[in-house]
Amino acid sequence: MKGQCWIDGEEIIFYIAINRRRKRTALAIRDDLSVEIRSPSPLSRETAVSLLKAEACWIRKARMRKEEILEKTPVQEYEDGATIPFQGCLLTIRHTRTGNGYFAYIAGNELYLSLPQGRDAVDERERIVQAVIRCYSSAILPFAEEVAGRTAEAIGVPIPRIRFGYQKRRFGSCTQKNGIILNIRLALAPPVYLEYTIVHEVCHLREAHHQKQFWELVESVLPEYRTFHANLQKEGMRYAL
């Protein structure tokens, strides 16, 4: 459900996201500065607006913080000779012109982008991003499967199936059929953050909450998880394609 209201003379766009696994209602600020109300049950518009007005001070400060983060987030360029992060290092982008499709592959410390003749990297940004996502997904999948396999074995759960997405908020999530979805942003960061996220999500297959038992399980697999968790929460969304 989408809605809008005015708080202190400012228009607020809001969305209500229902997740029946949640225990309580919470607010989050989206990249477009709208407010997402995450609730375990449906809310009426009147209830949603009342909640937003009650949290007006928090919303104002959180939107300002989000704006500051977005302003500091660099825009990834795909011109020939530009650089792009991959697992904490920088690859140099090289353009090739072969065939009519869009694809990418890594060779050494270079990322090769194949573009159709006559097409420009600026105009074809979305197709290039999808090609890079496919390339990065294939490149990190073996490592992701290895981490998921040993974590699952260590805590006694079935090995999950892994797939990748490009989410705006979450770094990882579980599916109802023993799978985990990883944010491809993690492919840009040092591998320890990918490892932590996989351990986190595999542990959720046994403990579907964030209570003490869950964090103790994570720590049993990855004792230094607190550092990775804190850094990822603070810096992770700055990795963008």
UniProtKB/TrEMBL annotation:
Pfam families: YgjP-like. It comes from the Archaea. CDD domains: M48_yhfN_like. Residues 23-234 form the YgjP-like metallopeptidase domain. InterPro entries: UTP_pyrophosphatase-like (IPR053136), YgjP-like_metallopeptidase (IPR002725). This is YgjP-like metallopeptidase domain-containing protein. It comes from Methanocalculus chunghsingensis.
